Amino acid sequence: MWQRQSRRIQWVLLAALGVVLVGVTLWLAGRDAGLTAVRSTHFVMDTVLEQTVYTAGEASGEAVTSEAARVVTEMENRLSAYREGSEILAITEAAGDHPVAVSDETMALLERAVEAGDRTGGLFDITLYPLTTLWDIGGEDFHPPEADAIAGRLEKVDYRTLQLDPEAGTAYLPEAGQGIDLGGIGKGAALDRLQAFYRASGVEHAIVSMGGNILAMGGRPDGDSFRVALRDPSGQDASVGTLRMREGILSTSGGYERYSEWDGERYHHILDPRTGYPAESDLWSASVLGENGADCDWQSTWLFVLGQEEARRQAEALGLSAILIGKDGRVELFGDAVQLFTLQSEHFVLQTGGPTGA
Ligand code: ADP
Ligand code: MG
Prior knowledge:
There is one protein chain. By secondary structure, the protein is α+β, with helices and mostly antiparallel strands. It contains 10 helices and 20 strands. The chain starts with 10 loop residues before the first helix and ends in a 6-residue tail after the last strand. Bound molecules: adenosine-5'-diphosphate (ADP) and magnesium ion (MG).
């Protein structure tokens, strides 16, 4: 029994759910090997989780996708910055007062996030919570905060003050008013968790999209790669181009995904911890391709904050596989992306890494 599918993400559905668009579109096809493509959509972690798994029958596929959604919901309940009862909100609420016991999984992610802070010189900072809540980008009745309110909150931001005690299994923020927001790493971590879950469930082929992040497993059952389209952030075309993906994670961060407008100005949701304001990036988006979702997630956020020139330098220095889409219309490819990406929009020009481009 097999079934063929070739569809795009249903943007209408996304709009109906009142969420912003993710930066990617998938083309799917499932046939051969007696596998059925089973597709499901859930709203979780404040975004759309779109799973396609290839299983021996529809029933087993549906069981896997609904259990997978449950797994991510469990993570959300634990990691949400806002949800009552989450371990992360407990740390925020206990700031300046007492350490909070956290699960091993949460501890591991916090440690990884702190490491990301170190590696980015603090440009990726999970203690931005006082500012992400002050700005409340995407919230109702948005208006930009006053400069002195921003400055006041900025004093509370420094991931280095977070005290993690893996022995005791506790986390502590020393000052009242501090808080944690894992928004820049949580969805990537969720995809890592899903990958492990699918493997344990015997799923060999899957493609999953979650708020701008993609997990690919095993390629398509027919032996071909999945094709992931990067949406044209400038809105001129449907997509800038497509990336062939077989195995791994692609994480995209962009200022065009989630933003608020006020007085004719756009304010997006990626903040610069140096200023407390939305990062003034000359990139439309930064995408990172790799094996670990949490890492790809913080790296893409970081590259976006850095802006075109510095992001290029870092992508090269670290040997990242990355796609930088500049507001100047340049698409720069690094590492594996050079081979895997195909430009489709005539509004963009391609450059393939190297110190001077090629
Ligand atoms: P998205 O969540 O849209 O996929 P990102 O992965 O880039 O985009 O994460 C953006 C989210 O991360 C914001 O909504 C906010 O919660 C948090 N954030 C914003 N700026 C930073 C930053 N400089 N460092 C760490 N986290 C950030
Ligand atoms: Mg990110």
